[in-house]
């Protein structure tokens, strides 16, 4: 595509698509480059988005695309952005398929990636009866016996949050526990069992967990699992372009999604630690409007 687009959006999840909707309605030329690996693709139902509670992620995506198609200045491309060079006013995006796109502004809506935990059988239950976020999937597992796979501070945090949905859960640290004496005492006071034996395997039927077998020979029966995933940035491109990143891989932005690099924005999971579809969509929309304002102001000032 030889045309200089107004905005290049990398990532077509809820954040990228919300930005595209705002920009399409603002009559901007937009290319959305998306490789199609959203974080929640493993899950059967997405919860908590007002008016769309329980929708499948693929249906959410289909509806979003269909509605955005009404704005003909928005182009969707199924590809991976691999390098980006240039500067505010003229960025050059090169994709894995070797196509190049030019845009005045950039939005990184690349999400985060969950690295799989090295636990036998977890892949079979992930998204079906094993989840990462009680706000997303806690309701479906309320009052049920659960196993929480996490260690140290993360386990304590998850235990506190999960206590709103069920009182029956066991923490499996999958190896030596990393709790401080104070944390151990806190868990004891709340009568939360902790198993530090390595996990042998998760036993399941059709994606529904039955029990967790431990290397010490014990088994824990349960109907669900929550675990603390290791999260990394969805793409290295923001950092490669000079965007400031936190230690945990989140792009640092202001209230309007603006990064420290002129003309470059970020939104959604990539730029917040509040991992929710509705939050990602809201941040994407705000970033889209902010980019539009910047473009309008630049055009206005050129004319004066
Ligand atoms: C198991 C699980 C269940 C969840 N359930 C819920 C739920 O019930 N309710 C809820 O609100 N939230 C849920 N979430 C969180 C939700 O998935 C995220 O908050 C949301 O997807 C973030 O949207 P996003 O647009 O920022 O990123 P994503 O949806 O992850 O989209 C990012 C997109 O960018 C693409 N991309 C990345 N790099 C490139 C590149 N270089 N070139 C092209 N494309 C690229 C990716 O392939 C992806 O398609 C869940 C998460 C998980 C892991």
Largest sheet: 7 strands, mixed
Any idea what the radius of gyration is? 22 Å
Bound molecule kinds, no repeats: flavin-adenine dinucleotide
| H-E order | EHEHEEEEEHEHEHEHEEEEEEHEH
How many E-type strands? 17
Q: Approximately what portion of the residues adopt beta-strand conformation? A: 25-35%
CATH homologous superfamily designation of the largest domain:
FAD/NAD(P)-binding domain
At the third CATH level, what is the topology name of the largest domain? FAD/NAD(P)-binding domain
Low-confidence stretches: none
CATH 2nd-level architecture of the largest domain: 3-Layer(bba) Sandwich
Give the C-level CATH assignment of the largest domain: Alpha Beta
The helical percent reads: 25-40%
Pairing-aware structural class of the strands and helices?
A: alpha/beta
Cofactor: FAD
InterPro entries: FAD/NAD-bd_sf, FAD/NAD-binding_dom, Ferredoxin-NADP_redctase_2
Domain FAD/NAD(P)-binding: 5-281
Keywords: Flavoprotein, Oxidoreductase
Key structural traits:
five-stranded parallel beta sheet; alpha/beta; FAD/NAD(P)-binding domain; 27% helix; 8 helices; binds flavin-adenine dinucleotide; seven-stranded mixed beta sheet; 304 residues
Q: Could you walk me through the main structural features you see in this protein, from its secondary elements to its overall organization?
A:
The chain folds into two domains: 4-114 and 230-303, FAD/NAD(P)-binding domain, CATH 3.50.50; 118-227, FAD/NAD(P)-binding domain. α1 packs parallel to α8. The chain has helices at residues 14-25, 57-68, 122-125, 134-137, 152-162, 181-189, 237-240, 277-303, and strands spanning 4-10, 30-34, 74-78, 81-87, 90-95, 100-108, 112-115, 130-131, 146-149, 169-172, 194-195, 199-205, 208-214, 219-221, 224-227, 230-233, 264-266. It is elongated. The mean pLDDT is 97. It has 304 residues and is α/β, with parallel strands linked by helices. A hairpin with a 2-residue loop joins β12 and β13 (208-214). The chain is built from eight helices and 17 strands. The strands form four sheets. Strands 1, 2, 3, 4, 5, 6 and 17 form a seven-stranded mixed beta sheet that branches. It has a five-stranded parallel beta sheet with strand order 8-15-9-10-11. It has a three-stranded antiparallel beta sheet with strand order 12-13-14. The two termini are 31 Å apart. The structure holds flavin-adenine dinucleotide. Residues 10-16, 33-40, 42-43, 46-49, 80-81, 109-111, 114, 127, 131-133, 136, 234-235, 237, 268-270, 275-278, 280 line the site of flavin-adenine dinucleotide.
């Amino acid at each position: 595509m030889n045309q200089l687009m107004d905005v290049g959006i990398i990532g077509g999840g809820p954040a990228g698509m919300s930005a595209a909707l705002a920009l399409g309605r603002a009559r901007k030329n937009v290319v959305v480059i998306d490789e199609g690996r959203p974080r929640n693709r493993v899950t059967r139902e997405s919860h908590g988005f007002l008016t769309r509670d329980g929708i499948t992620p693929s249906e959410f995506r289909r509806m979003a695309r269909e509605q955005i198609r009404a704005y003909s200045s928005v182009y969707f491309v199924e590809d991976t952005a691999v390098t980006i060079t240039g500067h505010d006013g003229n960025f050059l995006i090169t994709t894995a398929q070797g196509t190049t796109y030019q845009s005045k502004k950039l939005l990184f809506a690349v999400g985060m990636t969950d690295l799989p935990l090295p636990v036998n059988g977890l892949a079979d239950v992930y998204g079906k009866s094993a989840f990462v976020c009680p706000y997303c999937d806690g309701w479906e597992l309320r009052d049920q016996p659960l196993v929480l796979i996490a260690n140290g501070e993360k386990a304590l945090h998850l235990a506190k949050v999960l206590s709103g949905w069920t009182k029956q859960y066991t923490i499996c640290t999958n190896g030596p526990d990393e709790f401080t004496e104070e944390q151990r005492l806190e868990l004891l006071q709340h009568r939360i069992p902790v198993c530090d034996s390595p996990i042998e395997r998760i036993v399941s039927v059709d994606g529904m967990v039955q029990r967790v077998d431990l290397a010490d020979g014990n088994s824990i029966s349960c109907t669900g699992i929550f675990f603390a995933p290791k999260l990394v940035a969805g793409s290295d491109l923001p950092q490669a372009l000079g965007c400031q990143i936190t230690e945990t891989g989140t792009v640092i932005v202001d209230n309007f999604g603006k990064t420290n690099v002129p003309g470059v924005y970020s939104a959604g999971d990539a730029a917040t630690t509040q991992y929710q579809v509705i939050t990602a969509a809201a941040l994407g929309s705000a970033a889209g409007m902010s980019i539009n304002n910047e473009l309008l102001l630049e055009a206005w000032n050129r004319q004066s």
